[in-house]
Amino acid sequence: MRPDYKSWMPKGMIFSFLGGFAAALLITLCFGCTAMLPAGTVRTALTAVFGILTAVFAGMTLWSTLMYRAFDYNGTRQMSRQIIEGTAAYITLPKGGKCLDVGCGSGALSIAVAKNNPDAEVIGIDRWGREYASFSKNLCENNAKAEGVANTSFRQGDAVHLDFPDETFDAVTSNYVYHNITGMDRQEILLETLRTLKKGGTFAIHDIFSASKYGDMQAFCRKLEDMGYREVKLIDTTGGMFMSRFEAAWMGLSGSALLTGRK
Question: For the whole model, what pTM was predicted?
Fold first, then answer.
């Protein structure tokens, strides 16, 4: 039995773009090559509009397919594996310690941390929404079983309001989660996660920490230091650590970085 961590680019999204391309192309051909409408300004305008839509959907189909291939855990590029293993390497737990993985998805990061820390416990939480319908608690548990990892558990959870008391965990981690949460102050969501960290505990959170999504993260790092956090760093992962700047640009991942430190 092999683990199935899926690709971070859902197949459903690729098929949606492909369906849009096929529909737009068909309508363009109908307007441009048949007598469905009489020749004239309206026919020309509609043909042009749907021609543009055809090109847009073609581009999105190509982009999403390339993303799928880059993120494929068993593909050639394996960017997902590189990010997961690179992030997990920042988490070291004491014997009997506990780690929280926020937004565990298919369980990849939770399992990687658990494999690195066999004498500790890792809890992965996720809401497993419809936009990532291929991810589920059952998938996480099957992947842990396939990896021979018994020190993980998975449960439903909300990153905005974590169902854990203050200072519960020796480490907290997350990968590409908070930028997906709209209508919220993402810095406040980070503080909600760090709330559950014990004194002396460590954190490693990988996300798209661009100013448009998070605001001034350098100021946030200084805020954490003022609150007593230590060794706070924002490490750029787009300069060759996990990906090249070119990859980050065309994938829409510019601003990706690791936020690390100790409470």
Answer: 0.90
In the block, residue with structure tokens 């608690």 = 137
Cβ atoms of 126 and 154 within 8 Å: the answer is yes
**Contact (Cβ atoms closer than 8 angstroms) between residue 112 and residue 88:** yes
- Cα-based distances in Å from 69 to 10, 88, 152: 11, 22, 28
- How many Å from the N-terminal Cα to the C-terminal Cα in the chain? 39
**Residue 139, both tokens:** 């998938």
Tokens at 181, concatenated: 């949460």
Q: pLDDT digit of tens for each residue in the chain (263 aa)?
A: 899 999 888 888 899 999 999 998 998 888 766 666 566 677 788 888 888 999 999 999 999 999 999 999 888 899 999 999 999 999 999 999 999 999 999 999 999 999 999 999 999 999 997 777 789 999 999 999 999 999 999 999 999 999 999 999 999 999 999 999 999 999 999 999 999 999 999 999 999 999 999 999 999 999 999 999 999 999 999 999 999 999 999 999 999 999 999 99
Give just the sign of the alpha carbon dihedral 34, 38, 44, 45.
negative
Tokens 């449960």 map to which residue? 155
